[in-house]
Design goal:
The protein is α+β, with helices and mostly antiparallel strands and 307 residues long. Helix content is 56%, strand content 12%. The protein contains eight helices and four strands, in the order ααααααααββββ. The longest helix is centred in the middle third of the chain and has 56 residues. It starts with 29 loop residues before the first helix and ends in a 13-residue tail after the last strand.
Length: 307
């Protein structure tokens, strides 16, 4: 609405023109009221973008399709940002419901599981990345129209309508809150992905190094026995075979060549690896012990067992 004196744009709730101070006596038209309700419900963010399209829809009477980039990249968050709560909820649960219905129907018809998955994903991608961005402005327009209709049914006075529209309209800060929460979770996840494996490797390395002290007692026993009798012991009353083992150690074995074989857990899902201690024999005497590993993460092993 414009001032009757200086033709400055003024709000419907203003009693005096902010430019010239003239008292407003002109009654607003229904179009002026509609525009002000649009502005109040849309809010200041991108107001001109939506207002232009909404007024054009009113003028032509046709709500056409048009591309909307925010609805393409961040559809769910755009619904929340524009306070379209029901749309956001339907957007969130619809893929699950749709996948269940399609899967049930196709399974009943005997269609293969792989074909069901491909078809479902294709349809969902078309809806999410083509249909919704094309209909976003239309959905928002219908949403605003419903709000205006409810407000006008509730209030007869124009100023009360505008006050109610201003309270209900604008954008929501929930997107910023969610972005902060998810950003925090993302950072924590990155740190956890780095810290947890490092900590686990540290714990496993400490367990393995402490277990080596038991292995050294076996090595000393075998060395003394061989150097004295020129043969390996037929049985081992081993210190290292006495349980409990550290969590990382799954078992200890010996063979006729004097080797000490230690079965080491790699992870809960990857099975076990093997660390082998072999006697180094020269001049019919054990001069020392070598160590090599197979299938064991190098980080948990001491330096002499990594080669």
């Amino acid at each position: 609405m414009k001032c009757q004196n200086c033709h400055q744009d003024i709000g419907l709730h203003e009693k005096f023109c902010s430019a010239c101070g003239t008292e407003i006596t002109v009654h607003p038209s229904s179009r002026d009221i509609q525009v002000e309700l649009y502005k109040a419900l849309i809010g200041p963010n991108n107001q001109s973008y939506y207002l232009e399209r909404f007024l054009n829809y009113d003028k032509t009477g046709a709500v056409g399709l048009g591309w909307h980039w925010p609805a393409f990249f961040v559809t769910f968050y755009w619904f929340l940002y524009r306070k379209m709560w029901l749309n956001a909820f339907l957007y969130f649960i619809s893929p699950f419901i749709f996948s269940f219905i399609i899967g049930f129907i196709f399974s009943f018809l005997g269609v293969g599981e792989s074909n069901i998955i491909v078809f479902t994903q294709l349809i969902l991608m078309v809806i999410i990345f083509l249909v919704l961005p094309s209909m976003a402005n239309r959905l928002y327009y219908r949403h605003i129209q419903k709000k205006i209709s409810r407000i006008q049914q509730q209030f007869r006075d124009t100023r009360q309508q505008l006050e109610s529209a201003e309270k209900q309209g604008g954008t929501s800060s929930i997107v910023l809150i969610l972005a902060t929460i998810f950003g925090f979770i993302f950072v924590i996840g990155i740190l956890a992905a780095i810290a947890i494996p490092a900590y686990q490797s540290y714990v496993q390395r400490a367990q393995f190094i402490s277990f080596q002290e038991k292995v050294k007692q076996d090595q000393n026993y075998i060395t003394e026995y061989y150097n004295t009798k020129q043969q390996f012991p037929e049985r081992m009353d081993s210190v290292s075979t006495q349980k409990p083992f550290p969590q990382i150690i799954k078992g200890v074995m010996f063979n006729v060549s004097g080797d000490i074989l230690v079965e080491v857990e790699i992870s809960a899902h990857s099975g076990t690896g093997l660390v082998t201690y072999s006697p180094i024999i020269a001049n019919h005497q054990i001069q020392g012990w070598s160590c090599h590993s197979e299938g064991v993460v190098k980080q948990i092993l001491p330096a002499n067992c990594r080669e």
